[in-house]
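Usage

Read records sequentially. Each one opens with the input sequence:
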Amino acid sequence: MQVSIITPLFNRLDLTRAYLSSLESTLRQWRYEIILIDDGSTDGTRDFLRTLPPERCRIVLNDAPQGYAANNNAGARLARAPLLCLLNNDTVLLPRWLEPMARLANTLPDVAFVGNVQREPVSGLIDHYGIFFDHEGQAIHAGKNAAIAPAEDYLEWPAVTAACGVVRRQVFLDLGGFDETFRNGFEDVDFCLRAHTRGYRHFVANRSVIYHHVSASPGRKAHDQPNFRLFRERWLDRLTQDFRARQTLPARHAEGRRYLRKYRWQPWRYNFWRFARAVEQRWWPVPPPRRLDSLPRAWFRWQDRWRLRCLQQAALPAGPTDPIPSALIFLIVGNTAQNPAHNGVSSVVRNLAGAFGRIEAPVRLVHWEPVSRTLRLLPPDFSVGLDAESLRASPIPRADSASVPSLFDPAAARPDDPLALAPSLHELPAAVPPPGAWVLLPEVPTAHQTAPIVEYVHRHGWKLAVVFHDALATNEPAFFAPGVPHAHAAYLQAVSGADLVLPVSDFSAADWQRFVAEKSLPQPPVKTCRPAADTCVRARTTLPPSHREQGAPIRLLCVSAVAPRKNHRALLAAYELAIAARPDLNLALCCVGEYRVSGDYIDAALHAAMERYPGKVTWYEQVDYSALRRLYEDCAFTVYPSTLEGFGLPIIESLWFRRPCICANTGATNELAYGGGCLTTDVRDPQTLADAILSLADSPERLAALSNEIDTRGLRCWEEYARDVLTYLTPPAAS
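and closes with the structure output:
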């Protein structure tokens, strides 16, 4: 089950029939359930519902009207899918309306509600693409009466309407669902504001479009006055404070300047009202009391004609951005998209794809198809993403797979949608990609995949760049399962045929050069390009390491996969030595990491430790990014006991959250520690590691000193990493 669609009903059987028909025709590639909740209809709706097939539609018949909020809450409790789609029966759905919303809801951990663009069925003009609030706390639908939606794939808004929206079921239930005090109005806006207070954000997917008969159910507006009074009593002070904060002169001038710059270099995004407001923000001393709804429709029609004219021009101004290659870059992401695992390699791939999207780089995603032995383009809407999780676990079935196609599968595209059909790279027109275009391989595929990729790229006159992570399996084969060292050596031999190698650290670069020298292999150019720090979520914490409450345990956090080379047994032994030496410190250890092959004895050691120290030693195999952020914020410092690493992403991740890290004094981890914020030691010796743990747990001054080192240390973001990669792939300008 992929999604549970919840629809409350009250009369209007004619709209319900049309709605169900459009729903069935647009979701043929999805696994879904429909939960229909009738709220006391009297027009034959209940008799019609009894004729629907029970295997697809779950029917709830209320004896008395319960209201919109109560019906959606009941549907959420009945739902079996992890994703909820709240949908009114007065909507008419268009093809591919669900995919953009579901993708973002499953991608970003701090997203609560994702809405879409809703148009009026008669005029076709936009009725809603987001909700904002004026200085009186009045909720206003953005984009009303416009003809063209914004150019961005996603835009963040303070609130969205629940007439059509997607939210994760667990988030909806954790927030308590809709407040049933509201009666058929303001439930969704109140929910969005409550979610904001818990750190969640809301977006509108501008590529998802439906038609909406607004307020078609009888009695829809009967409770608007008491609903609005309740809403103002609850939220007016907060909304007024937020509005005033946004209207301070420095903030208003900066916002207006930013929008004017955008319209200068991107005129196809021109919006008449937003442009006028940006001018006022830039130079006016006080905000003018204007409302978007007061503008005549003729102004919007003029705006739409201007935007269409700009879009139809052959050449659009590029704007003053950093130089990026004019040719497309094809990013191979197939293995990461098919594997939900969270490890160092997949984090680099996902974050790199997200950064390419944020800087609007000319990058398209591809995957290797082993049956046809070609690189195939992913559909255009499955493109470089908005944030770190743009390539989360939505698998691409292989060509020989008998499973139901996912929404990202080229084979699942509609035959009447020419943009959704994903051709092979060599089937594109001669100018795209041009000779000399780059294919970037940030993953670690198997050797029998890498060699054909190298041959395929060079056969068509393109260039191949490989992000090189490590050569650990060939250097220390005892830590890996039988057969892995030999397969990894074959992979390294295939990589030697690339045109550029981008190691993630100087340590990895030295390993690579040593391997090709020993094997007398070709040596392509090497450019070290270190990954970034903002791995989990982009916002950094402001809590110091010593923020814990009086008497609370001192929490140690270890984020690492459960594998032999990660050295968990030394960490557990060091923890026991530390609590035996200082039982008064109340140390607690939390391990986060998925189980790997050959980690059986470590798994047993972790469970034994949890039994000996209940409540103090915990292990989470899988956590989402929101939970991982909370674990970082709750801990005093982190311990990364791994003895072999090509980079050590959890170390830089810990520094991003201002948490000092204890790590090894050798290899790539020692390279990362240079710059401050880390305590290096011999992690292989439990007693030495225990001494390091106690030195931080028992010395707030030393912990604060390491935290201050982090504040003065420059940490890169993924946009910088992506631009570095683009710089290496850009040919030097002719003098």
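Summary fields computed downstream for this record:
- The first strand starts at residue 3 and ends at 9.
- Residues 248-312 form one domain.
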